[in-house]
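Before going further, learn to read the protein records used in this course. A complete example follows; check for yourself that the lines match position by position.
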Amino acid sequence: MSKRRGGLVWSSEPEEQRHGDRPQRPERASRSAAHPPPEKQTARLTRSRKGRAGKTVVTIEGLELDDAGLRDLARTVRQRCGTGGTVKDGVIEVQGDIRDRVAQTLQELGYGVKLVGG
């Protein structure tokens, strides 16, 4: 067995780009410019059991956040409510029938809340 030696094996970049200064990545727009602030958004909270073997989850929809923003918000809600959950297809799912706790948490974070369904 031979040891792998360092070094470039193959590159599609021209020779001068490989050894010269690397081009800088364009700066990303700040998250606050990408979506409205929490005070201008309303979260729609529903209870759901369909396709979950009878387990109840609270879904949070209607927020204008990118994927990273949804994951951050989901993490915060899960930690404050002491439960599990996930983000699927732009919808935050929080485990358990704790819609009132989730609503209170979102209101503390500055979001408007609308309870949908029974």
Q: What stands out?
A: Residues 45-118 form a domain with the Translation Initiation Factor Eif1 fold (CATH 3.30.780.10). The helical segments are 15-19, 31-34, 67-81, 99-108. The longest strand covers residues 42-48.
